[in-house]
Amino acid sequence: MRRSQYFLPTLKETPAEAQIVSHRLMLRAGMVRQSSAGIYSWLPLGFRVLMKIQRIVEEEQDALGCQQMLMPTIQPADLWRESGRYDAYGPEMLRISDRHKREMLYGPTNEEQITDIFRASLRSYKDLPKLLYHIQWKFRDEVRPRFGIMRGREFLMKDAYSFDLDYAGAKRSYNKMFVAYLRTFARLGLRAIPMRAESGPIGGDMSHEFIILADTGETAVFCHRDLLSMQPPGADVDYEGDLQPIVDRWTALYAATDDLHDPEKGKALGDALVTTRGIEIGHIFYFGTKYSKPMNAKVTGADGAEVFPEMGSYGIGVSRLVGGIIEACHDDNGIIWPASVAPFQVGLISLKADDKALSDVCERLYRDLQANGVDVLYDDRDERAGVKFADMDLIGLPWQLVVGPRGLKAGVVELKNRAGGERQELSLESALAKLTG
Ligand code: ATP
Ligand code: MG
User: Fold this and answer.
1) 282 lines ligand 1 (CB under 6 A)
2) Average per-residue pLDDT in the chain?
3) Is residue 281 a contact partner of residue 316, using CB atoms and an 8 Å limit?
4) Ligand 1 centroid vs 66 CA: distance in angstroms?
5) 320 lines ligand 1 (CB under 6 A)
């Protein structure tokens, strides 16, 4: 992409309305634009990151055997009357009516919808287990939308649903998601801590929130220091094998939020206790037959008796993650994208846009990098070097490749690593080899 043609409205000034660093940087980097309170448009740079995150989430859901589908944003109120949640949900639900005065709502989540789909098509214990997910916009009329897309009203969520014949099956599905979440967040460059949330109807640790640490987080976090250095499972994890040991390893160490924190247990940890704040980026939940029973979604068991499937739901805040990653990865100059979600891998900077020989070299680098599958943002604008450097630091691409007249005379270009700030002078060939290798 050529910067001269790209729609990237960066800002020099810090927007006054933004209270936290991710919100400030997203506005300054031209990633989003607010439409109304808690509702945002995603501009090209922001949208690229959002889709990269979505892709990783999809790959990890697919890997555990969860099947992707797509449910609508608008749902009929009657479905929610069946579960009893239509009245219970309160003012967070956006209720609307269509031209025939039928009551509808903009889905804040999809348990009722998926249970309705399930009961329409699945009949036998042989149809179980089933794991289904979609990635869709949700609407929740939050009392205090704030921090940009972190607590929006309209936001993108991955929500998955599991259907199993019994508790043991439900636990297996839960464990698959637990492990997949550890992998997903690690691939996004994040250190996420699973924290026991309120327990399910059968008790035990059947609800976990995944939290990343950030001073600006809305949740108080108390946890064992060693949780912060645990190695997430590798890509070779066997989802059909026994995942309980992995889950046990991650849940053995103390971690709690404000509501569940036990000061005595905290004290017992001594120096190993970390007290900080965090951002919830995912939530997994086992709830048994809470929806299958009232909505009469059942299958015939092996013995001919009717069984209400045991269900779980599993959310990831895909759009919230964009802000969460920035909270975790930035410095005074701007964003530092982990390579896995960076909107472009390389920012190519021409220091003299009106120099023909220099432009020719840049064009060649631009072409060669793209030909090798490297996403490049080529700053070909006729701007001062300082402006280009500041802009490139702000948008946080992992590598900056700087081509200037002086270096070119010596046959070298400069390669800067955004994260560490190290600069290297390299020949064109070595620079290309390094970036495409
Ligand atoms: P919170 O406690 O932050 O309101 P929640 O418990 O309501 O979250 P869930 O219903 O579990 O959230 O939704 C799954 C995920 O969706 C959350 O873990 C979070 O990452 C994301 N999410 C929830 N509400 C919002 C929001 N208002 N804006 C952006 N993302 C959200
Ligand atoms: Mg909420």
Assistant:
1) yes
2) 95
3) yes
4) 21
5) yes
